[in-house]
Structure formats: C-alpha cells, structure tokens
Amino acid sequence: MFRQTLVALILCTALVAAPALAEWISPGNGTVYSMDGLVAASGGAVTGGAGLYEFQDSVVIGLGDRLEVGPGATLSFTGSAGLIGLEINGALTALGTAAEPILMTGDDPTPGAWRGLDYQDGDAASEFRLAYVIIEYADIAVDVFGMDAELDRCEITRSADKAIDITQGNGVFTNCRLHHNQARTVTMTLTASPLFE
Fold it and tell me: How many other C-beta atoms can be found within 10 angstroms of the C-beta atom of residue 154?
C-alpha cells in the first residue's frame, strides 16, 4: 500500500511540475488574420504588436483560414525547448521585402530553440508562400507534408535537424540561402518533386 501511495504521489508531482504546453487553433471559418489580429484572437498564445510578436504557445492556422505577415515583422518563439511552432493547414503568406525582411526566430539563439513551420493537411485553397523571410534557430525550419510550398529569396540558417523537409510534396524554392544548418539541409521523399532554382 505504501508503495502504491508513493508512486501515485510521484506521478501527481510530476504532472503538476510539468510545463503545460497548449496550442491555439484557428476556427477554420475563413478568417484572414494579420499578426495584430492573431494577437487579439489567440487568447495569449501570441503577444506583442507594432511588428514585434512573441509566440507563447504553438499556433495552428486551420483549414480555410489565412495568416498574413507583413514586411519587417519579427516573430519570436519563446521558452519552449523547441516545442512551440507554427502549423499551417490553411494559408500563410509572409511577404517581406529586400529592405524589410521578416524574421522568424527562437528567443534563445540556439539551433532547435523552436519547432519551425509545418505545412500539412491542407486543401485546394491552402497556400504557403514566403518571400524575403529569415528563419533561424528552428529544429526543422520548413516541414512540408503533401502540399506545395513557395519560397523566394528566403534565408534559412542554424536549424538543428533540417532546413527544409518535404514529404510527398512539391513546391518552388528560388534564390534561397541555406547555410550553417547543423544536421541536414534538405531532405525529401521519393514522392516529392520540388524545384530548386
């Protein structure tokens, strides 16, 4: 009896002490979010404003919804030991400029500080388009599953596992710089057929 009580006490203590990671999922009702709109809707999962945003929890942009990130924005994924990321099932357009690139980074300048961008489970209206985006310190910076992604003039650096991972997907990657990544730069399955220019 003492042993069972002790085991139960240890398990309860572990559950209470473990950090609670949640995620915010958009409703999938056709909403178009700016970053400021995402801050307002996400119930604290994303905070900040005026171009500087912190992801406190993972965010999933649901089917039918869209996230638009404008030039010069900084998205920082905080204190998650690599567990917090951004998953796109709907659409993401992050369009920076040469003068005002978008930065997606971890709050700790260490490879693997945040999970990265996942693009999966979409439909015909789904979209994943990045231009002039710098992605740094992710585990897998861009993880594409069964969809077509478009990256133009992006820089992916200091990823822990992979810069780009494509499973059963395609896409076009033009004028991108992939450097100082820790393990693998690009991986893809035999059913993937992306174009790198």
Answer: 27
